[in-house]
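Fold this sequence, please.
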Amino acid sequence: MGDVAVGARSGHDGEEHRGSPAESTVPAADSAVTSGNDSGAAKDDRVTGEHTTAEGQGPGGTARTAKKPRSFWKELPILIGIALVLALLIKTFLVQAFSIPSDSMQNTLQQGDRVLVDKLTPWFGSEPERGEVVVFHDPDNWLAGEPTTDPNALQTFLSWIGLMPSAEEKDLIKRVIGVGGDTVECKNTGPLRVNGKALDEKSYVYAGNTPCSVDDQGGQFKVKVPEGYIWVMGDHRQNSRDSRYNQSDAHHGMVPVKDVVGRAVVIAWPVNRWDNLPVPDTFDQSGLGAQPAAAGLPAAPQGLALAGVVPVVWWRRRKQ
């Protein structure tokens, strides 16, 4: 700080005397209040009204200690915990990954593919539409006799938070052919008909398969789908145990809408098979009847979890 000027005083001889050296070197107090025309005011002082607070000090002239930001490594476990909670919530309510265990949906889906299933829209009353690929809980022991896997601890944890398909859930994946009120029929080798309209299924039925299977076990059929149910079939028609071959169960081969987990919207893995799963054009033709409205939400649980963590990090940093 600059030197402080000490006012002049008169001696007995009328001459001006300067103060003692001790007096002339006394620094001005940092918290001093100066008048508006005092050129000796400290430059670092901030004057508010009639009071001045020096930079770096708290009230009363006490030193204020700057708060150190928390180390990134200390925050990392908190952020990981937040991401895991968000992933669990997303898996429960929004999107879940499922693995394709068989060839019944070839060539649309291959064994080992991972698909992302929209679980959000059913919460808002949306029901499956014709042509959609859906995942549903086993309606009545359709998977009897199918081999089951024994996951390790890591696989169990990852499936619990939605980053891997669950090996314990008995779920199936098929294409919706008929919804409540529809009449679905197939004779000889086809075509498959919905409400009397023939479907052109070349774009998704496995190459070399016929729309109908010529057998006496369910491949030839005509059914009326009750309200609250759907009729499902695999795209690999001659290699799919679907609604046709479960007509003797409690629901006569139908799948209750309440058992539908959601619509498969994206092939997420492997990378070279990334693709969406749209409804084929044949289901948009007139005469099939009205469809229930639905909307998709294709997103990965881990991606949404990361998006949820970013605002938390920003808020915590801003608060510090």
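Residues 180 and 227 are 4 Å apart (CA to CA). The helical segments are 21-24, 72-93, 153-160, 301-319.
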